[in-house]
Specification:
Structural class: alpha/beta
Number of domains: 3
Length: 599
Amino acid sequence: MNGDTLQDRLTLDYESICAELEQMLEDVGRLCGDKYFTKALGEKHIQAIRERREIIRRRLRGDFQLVVVGDFKRGKSTLINALLGKAAVPTAVTPETVTINKLSYAETPRMEAVLKNKKRISLSQSELTRSALDELMHRLPAPIDFIDIRLDHESLRNVTLVDTPGMGDLMKAFDEQVADYLVNADAIIYVVSARAPLSYTEQAFLSTTIMPQSFSRVFLAVNMADTLETAENLQKIERLTKDRAEAISDKIYVYLLSALDEYCRKLGLNRPEPQMAGVLENNFLAFETAIHSDILLQKDIIKSMRGISLTLGLLNEIVSRIGLIQNSLKANAEKLERNEDLFKEQDAALRAGIERHREALSSAVADMSAEAKRWMRTFLERIKAEIEQMASNADVSDLQRYFQFYLMDQIKSAILACTQKHQKEIGDLLLSSAKSISGEISQSAYGNIQAQISDCITDISWTNVDTAMFAGDVFLTMSGLSGALGPLMVVGQAIAGLIRQRTIAKKQTDIITPVLQAFPSVVSGIMENIDEIYAQLGQKALTKLDELYQNQIEVSRETIEHARQIISDENIKMQDVLDALDDTLRVIQGHKQTLEEYS
């Protein structure tokens, strides 16, 4: 306690914050019933505000949602069973028998399959096996939506633990459901395999789907550590995974563990790797302790912060909508009528403007591609020098086992570092273009650039998720590196064949020489691959720019038409609407200030 700072010891009072958020949401609900506010924003946007308000209220009142995600066959269900110390959810499932499992607390345990037609059927423990599930699914009148599992387990009190199916091609049918659970999650455990930790598609999922949700921390469980054979291998994989995770976010906490080993330990079964039992037990204990202390004991604080973040997002949306219509209304009716026609006539000029932005963006991405190739040539020269040194001082057995994979991983990581830097720059360029286009639209619609209107258009059309949109494209295009690294893969296969035939001598040069001979082809292939990656990124950027333009045009035209209708309505005074919006803004801005003090 003496080492803690005063700031570390400060906590949020969950009940007080919930009451305050409920009051703010009540105010939003009353606003949605106000005739002037409804008239100003329009029924479509009022309905959207109501829906977001209800989602936030349900989140505040419901259980804490801890969601376990990961690709198929990563051991997610085994991890849950290990945490609970019992066979709570089915394991070793196939794509045909996979289900979403929701675990929560009940004094009297029970299990039910909730069907997509909203009907339920009770289940026995024996029916949660793969074979029993397969037979049951063929007899049910509708597909299973999820399995509702209630257990008398203290760690589940006020917590819902969600065991999701794997993501990826085999699990496409579940992707939308899993995405919904992620949006409503309060905390995340992301499970990957120690045999291939944080693949590029997994890194893409973290960057584009999980991290934009603004979780305070994400627990990365690197499962199947019992397959790594030695404690030294565990350390290498842990270090590699931490490096990859840190490149994405400092909020990702890595734990190397074996769910199977822990499950066997707790149930008194034979351990998979007895010689590693001690280190595996300690590793899982560290993970379990972190889950308990950083999530379960602080679930109210985490829910408070999630509620604050969601409510603040809703209030910001309302402020932007009010600002746009309010500033539009301040133009007189005659000017709005004239500018609506002028706006349509100037569509060609606006499109010419967007074409200039497209050309500038394409040129910038081409410059980034050239810069990436310069970086990579310098990097590859260093790699080649390191390889030449290995010919005299590296251990032959290490070269045989790890060299090919080490080399490929180093090259992939270097290209990833280039593209990660540039995807941030592309995102910044897009945001800058969005602001510029908003100004051009404002000038076209109102005769001059009105900063307030321009800013509101940008706020509505550009979200925080947009700033992370290119991360996925960066990671997913890395799959194209297989072609560029083809010469290395062929060399690696040849080396493996020689080892199997025992024709390779016990010296480093037998392994290093063919790699050096193939290196010019590798460099050439990588340069071509960089061109392909940046061409794809450039095209994605242009597509997003077009989407932004269309969205901003739609927002502007809709606002002009709506403002014109309000002004021409004989049953309502425009000044009354403006006065009501001023009052509303004061209330909303006051709530925003209160919430920002918690951040």
